[in-house]
Amino acid sequence: MLESSIYIDQKRMDDALASAEASVAADDTFADGYVALGVIRQERKEFSDAIAAYRRYLELAPQGVYAPTIEKQLDRLKQETGGGNKAG
Description:
Blueprint: H1 2-9, H2 13-26, H3 31-43, H4 47-60, H5 67-81
Helix pairs in contact: 1-2, 2-3, 3-4, 4-5
C-alpha cells in the first residue's frame, strides 16, 4: 500500500490504482489495500467502486484503525450519490 500512497500524493492516479489493485490481487484479505482502492476510486469519481472497496475494508477490518473514518466516508458518498448506485 505504501507505493500506492506515494502515487496518490503525487496525483498519479493510474499508477496508484495499478499498485492498489496489485496489492489486493496478491492478498485479497489485505484490508488496507481496499482503503487505497477506495480513495483512488473516489478521486477518479468512480463512486460505486469506491463504495465497494470501502465496504470490503469494513468486512475485513470492522474494528480497524480506519473503520470510523471509512464509515463516515461511506455515509457521505451514499448521500452524494443517492445511495451509492452511480458510477463515475
